[in-house]
Amino acid sequence: MMQMRETIDPAGVTRFTLASGAQIPVIGLGTFGSDKVSADEIAAAVLDAARIGYRHFDCASVYGNEARIGEALQSACNVIAPRKDFWITSKVWNDKHAPKDVESSCKQSLGDLRLEYLDLYLIHWPYPNHHPPGCDIDTRSQEARPYIHADFMETWGAMEKLVDLGLVRHVGTSNMTIPKIELLLKDARIRPACNEMELHPHFQQPGFLQYLLKQHIQPIGYCPLGSPGRPERDRTPSDTSPLDDAVIRAIANDHRVHPAEVCLKWAVQRGEVAIPFSVNPRNYRANLLAVAEDLLSPEEMEIIAAVDRNCRLIKGQVFLWKENQSWHDLWDENGTITPP
Fold this sequence. Notes:
Number of strands: 10
CATH superfamily: NADP-dependent oxidoreductase domain
């Protein structure tokens, strides 16, 4: 393995240009601790990550750690780099989809994160169905309901208002599907800047990725390493790990890096922003360095494209809305929105 530099010049980390002309760093630090990592640990990782060169942090109110992260971001903006150099994302949770709640939820996140504005604010899930932290796979909200486009557009209208108020600079979606985004694009006043989605070598979603890029919507990939620390409720016997894939490991061996670094190089080179989570300094430093140098060859990119197993890891069972449903009903896999 190569010896890693202590810090990485942020100028050496590529940024993708959004439809607005704004630039988003191609790698960020995720902050979902999978119900296992404390807010204090994550806040410490955020501050140290900023010190070594990270300028992108992906947050969410439901993660329960934004107040502690806010202390770290305040220190980072005071000591390491000005606020304008950072890209900070947060998300409105499923119990705050009502238009009256969207603004207050955003302001809560801004207060917790100690920011005057967010670079990106996402609707975390298109379903207004929520669940308590640490719940099991069979948990269902009594008020759970299906995707209803008219209701979603009311939420989106409230998101657009946040842009008008200057509270957020971009709005976007997460865990969407092509049929849902097509409806949104037809009716939205402000188009989504980004869509956050599960993406890794064993779940590549090539058609969806290309659709987004053609629509000038930036794909942001969560679980880019296969989320080895994801909650138990998101694990099934059929799951596979890209970090254990023989092809990925062989390419990593050729480059003398960890397989995680190959996954991140691949992600960025195909046009997605990657937001891996780690509180291990060696790991998040290596993740940043992975996208700053030593790219994969076109031949290696083609080889990795062939290892896709269509293995969705975050299936979303807790967001189902009626009995005897499959998680497949959440994802519109036949090209149409699942009926109520």
